[in-house]
Amino acid sequence: MASTKPIKEIAYYALHILIVLAIVSPLLFALVSSVRPLNDIFKYVSPVTWRTFIPTEITLQAYVDLFKEWAFGTILFNTLLVAVATVLFGIIIGSMAAFSFAKFEFKGKSLLFGFVLLTFMIPFEVIAIPLYRLIDQLNWIDSYYALIVPAVANGLVIFLYRQFFMDLPNALIESALLDGARWWKIYTAIIMPLCKPVSISAGLMLFISQWESFLWPLLVTHSQKFRVIQVALSDFTTEHSTLWNEMFAMAVIAVIIPILILLPLQRYFVQGVTNTGIKE
Prior knowledge:
Number of domains: 2
Main location: membrane
Membrane topology: Multi-pass membrane protein
Distance between the termini: 46 Å
Protein name: Carbohydrate ABC transporter permease
Structural class: mainly alpha
Transmembrane segments: 12-32, 75-99, 111-132, 144-165, 186-208, 247-265
Domain ABC transmembrane type-1: 76-265
CATH superfamily of the largest domain: MetI-like
Radius of gyration: 24 Å
C-alpha cells in the first residue's frame, strides 16, 4: 500500500499540471501574440515549439495603436463606468429589496420572491427582445441608461442579501427601534456595515457580469461613443483581414483588469457566498 501512495500523488499532481496548462496556454498565447508583429503571430503555431510561447521579436505597437487609432481610452472608460455604476446602484437596490423580503411581512411576499428567483433562472436571450422594445420606448437606445439600468435589479444579488439578512437576529432591529432609530438609520448604520462579505460578493458578480456583457451592449448601442470592451473586440475583424495582434492586446487588458480586482477580494467573495446558504 505504501508503494502505491507516491504513484497516486504523482498522478494527482500530473493531472492538475495538465489542467493548469490547458487553462493557461491560451492566455499565454494571447499575451505573447499581443507583443508580436502581426505577420509572426501564426508563424510558429504548427508545429508547436518554444517559439510558439516565447516571442523572438517584441513590439508594443499593438497597445499603442489601441489608444491612438481605436480610441481605447473611451472604450475602457465606458466599460468601467457602466460596471461601477451597476455595482453601486445594484448593491443599494438589491440590499434594500432583500431587507424587505427578510424582515417585513406583506401580502404576496412569497409569490413576489418566487418571481425574483425566476429572474436569474431565465436565460437573458428570452427577454432580450421585449427588453429592447421597452428601452426603445423610453428613448434610451444608444445611451448609458440602456447599458446600466436593466442590470441594476439582479435577482441573484437580492437572493444573496436576503439569505444573509435572514440570519440577523430580530432583536438587533427591535432594540434599535426602541432606542428611537428610524428604519433608514437602521439600514445604513446597523445592517449594511454587517454585510461586508456579501456586499463584496454581490459587487463582484455585478461587475464581472457587466464587464463580460456582449449581447445587450451590441443590441442597444450603435455609436462609438458608447462602445464597451467586449463589443469592441469584434471590431478587429474586417472583410479582408483580422488585426490579431491588436485584438489579442485588447483581450489581454480585458482579462487582466477583472483579475486584478478579483484576486485581492476573493477571500471575501468566498466568505460571502458560503455564508449565504439556503436557509428558511
